[in-house]
Amino acid sequence: MTRRFGIYLHVPLCRRRCRYCDFCSRTVDDQALIDRVAEALSIQVSRAEPLFGNTLYIGGGTPNLLSAAALMDLIARTRERFDLPTGAEVSCEANPAANRDPGYLAALVRSGLTRLSVGFQSFDDAELRLLGRLHDAGATDIFGNARRAGVESLSVDLLYGLPGQRPATFRRSLERALALDVDHLSLYALKLEPGTDLAAAVERGELPAPDPDAAADCYETALEVLDDAGYRQYEISNFARPGRRCRHNEHYWRAGPFIGLGPSAIGDDGERRRRVTDDVAAWLAAVETGAEPAVELETPRESERRIEFAMLALRTREGLSRATFRRRFGLEVEAAFPGLTPHLEAGALEEVGDSLRLARASQLVADRILADLFN
């Protein structure tokens, strides 16, 4: 059976760095540099080993800073180079402050785009200012324009657990998102990453530290509101209408092989893991001179593979299948991870058919439970 790879392309450009962001991204207001990065990504795609692709995800940064022609070229080259099958999911992240007119989006659909993931983060203007976003809560035309352009699936990202955020405000953001008829929501708890402007402001006492109890209330609110609205949770942070899950991310969570191109992108063929340099200038110079960008190589041990597989599976609502684990690693789940049994007996984990998964209440402390299971 042909192995198919998830393909990720990283666009490391933004108009302005958000206060909470530690992703690999360079601020830019120079169209010439944007065009150079787009061309370098196209070159990398053309030079890549022609493996079989499964899904394509273009992330960032802000991919919709690229011209429609540049993104169309990237999608077309990727589809050809990696033999993406008919009907393959092609996703692109988008910032509502960048290119969002109907003509731009329709051009992407013509090239094969099926899914748009809009990083809105909040529908509250005060929260958007706190986060350092360039758009305001009224910049919602991208959603209607995407529908009119023929985008099959629309997703929106929201953040919760912000300094001073009230659960009632987060509920209003959820309701605003649902009113826009989105198919999918990704809800992420804010993490104060070291070196970010927001973390520094909290450390200086200019902002209150995020309140974990308020964050938990926000999450519980989301579970209630989205379930009532017909969105089904399929991973700790992700909710979708039937048939609108993100297939690219599901490929990751099932520990499928993937390719990463662009600065900081990660690839993993099941044996070796490759991380591209996050130095955008060095990456660009290498590609433009015909050299290979610097990469870090890692060969995870079998025990590490088992842990990664189990942790990813337990984040999903399908859970960790005993039969799948046995086929893949030749071990029973409980033999590989004796720490599962006490959590199962305590109710933090639950059995659903052949699988183990986090109980709903345990999702609020998933990171702590998973770390305890596998340390």
Question: Can you walk me through this structure?
Answer:
This protein is of the alpha/beta class and 375 residues long. Helix content is 40%, strand content 21%. It has a nine-stranded mixed beta sheet, sandwiched between helices. β9 (232-235) and β10 form a beta hairpin. The longest helix is centred in the first third of the chain and has 17 residues, at 31-47. The protein starts with a strand and ends with a helix. The mean pLDDT is 94.
Could you name the key traits of this structure?
single chain, 15 helices, nine-stranded mixed β-sheet, 40% helix, globular, 17 strands, 375 residues, alpha/beta
What is the structure about, briefly put?
By secondary structure, the protein is of the alpha/beta class. 40% of the residues lie in helices and 21% in strands.
Multimerization status: single chain
The major pleated sheet works out as: 9 strands, mixed
How far apart are the first and last residues' alpha carbons, in Å? 35 Å
Q: β content, as a range?
A: 15-25%
Question: How is the secondary structure organized here?
Answer:
Elements: E1 5-11, E2 13-14, E3 26-27, H1 31-47, E4 53-60, H2 68-81, E5 90-94, H3 102-110, E6 115-121, H4 125-131, H5 141-149, E7 153-160, H6 167-179, E8 184-189, H7 197-203, H8 212-228, E9 232-235, E10 238-240, H9 247-253, E11 258-261, E12 266-268, E13 273-276, H10 280-288, E14 295-298, H11 302-315, E15 320-321, H12 322-329, H13 333-336, H14 340-346, E16 349-352, E17 355-358, H15 366-374
Parallel strand pairs: 1-4, 1-11, 2-3, 4-5, 5-6, 6-7, 7-8
Antiparallel strand pairs: 8-10, 9-10, 12-13, 13-14, 15-17, 16-17
